[in-house]
């Protein structure tokens, strides 16, 4: 129903057209999201982490004025955009069982971080020193957005590189756990250099070695949980067919590799570069990502 005016009629027509284009089924919605990510791969996987690295370093160095320096909603928005290829890639494999186990992993994320903030176990004494948005019991509410994709990326990369050898749970544990820890070797020194959180000093670029022992525990929990959440065959088929499913890891390499380079954290930067090599071998840090940019 409209008010009879030309403006009201055109608005109604526009809403009708929008409703007609909106997906009617889950499959149609997934196809739409696939297309959106695929058409914007370079912007999501390269431009966003480059801009993010400059903004975060600028905030740490005092180049970005208040209230924009480390603005939590800007940070969270950028993270969500960079996570979108992973989320959209995994979405067709998500069912009720997967949602339940992801809920378990989310609960674990809050629990172990709350224990860590309160007691220093298992990661070592640390405190958040930058506002990362709303807090719950001393832990950022958005914590699962930071943690779960990190372990999921490691899990998927290992499935892709291992191929049939990943059928063994012991092989998965033996490979994914060190990859998760290696990702934190990149993440934590960069975050400490930015001032995101503070361990009060540590042997590895301001990070205590106990932190990595804690990440071994969390990696074991994550691998066991993800194994129960997803059907291995379905995940591998989707991973094979979805070229952008690991683009979030491309963003990780660019963002945290660049930040570590800026602050002179050479070993973490080298580990980030090694992940880039792994993505190249897996044909994910690929020419298709950059063809879009050259053609734009």
TrEMBL record:
Instruction: Extract the InterPro entries matched here.
Output: BABR_hydratase (IPR053540), CruF (IPR017823), CruF-like (IPR007354)
Question: What Pfam family does this protein match (any one)?
Answer: Caroten_synth
Q: Which UniProt key words apply to this protein?
A: Membrane, Transmembrane, Transmembrane helix
Membrane-spanning segments: 42-64, 70-91, 98-121, 141-162, 169-192, 212-231, 252-280
Q: What domain of life is recorded for the organism?
A: Archaea
Q: Read off the PANTHER family from this record.
A: SLL0814 PROTEIN (PTHR39419:SF1)
The name of this protein is: Carotene biosynthesis protein
